[in-house]
Design a protein that fits this description.
single chain; alpha/beta
């Protein structure tokens, strides 16, 4: 697959696998949006890959909308979306219901919600161009 000039969004892009994906996409010529909860880390990786850093919690719909707007206004329509964001899999006994729900949504709910949102935007964009 050719990545040159493709707009790639990587959630959880500031560290680990996400960071490596950002570097590899950039090396292949893609325009990369590094999305992460950690704004400074996202900006640092974005500088490394000549992309943009976006602070967003992909479990919050408003953050997703802001991320979409920022990426598309800076880099153009998204071609590839990598859903890599996660929280630590440790579930301490004192986590409570809110903490458990956040972990649960990160693991199960967010990928589906993000995918549906991005597919909707991509389809609308295609229909508007037709």
């Amino acid at each position: 697959m050719e990545f040159k000039n493709k707009v790639v969004v990587v959630t959880g892009g500031a560290n680990g696998i996400g960071r490596s994906l950002c570097v590899e996409f950039a090396n292949a010529g893609a325009k990369v949006a590094v999305v992460d909860l950690e704004a400074k880390s996202a900006s640092d990786v974005a500088e490394l890959v000549d992309g943009i850093g976006v602070k967003a919690d992909v479990g919050i719909e408003k953050d997703i909308q802001t991320m979409v707007d920022e990426v598309e206004s800076s880099l153009g329509p998204v071609d590839i979306f990598v859903s890599n964001a996660y929280l630590t899999p440790v579930f301490p006994l004192g986590m409570g219901l809110i903490g458990w729900r956040r972990q649960h949504l990160m693991k199960l709910g967010k990928p589906v919600g993000r995918l549906m949102l991005w597919l909707t935007f991509m389809l609308l964009e295609q229909w508007c161009q037709a």
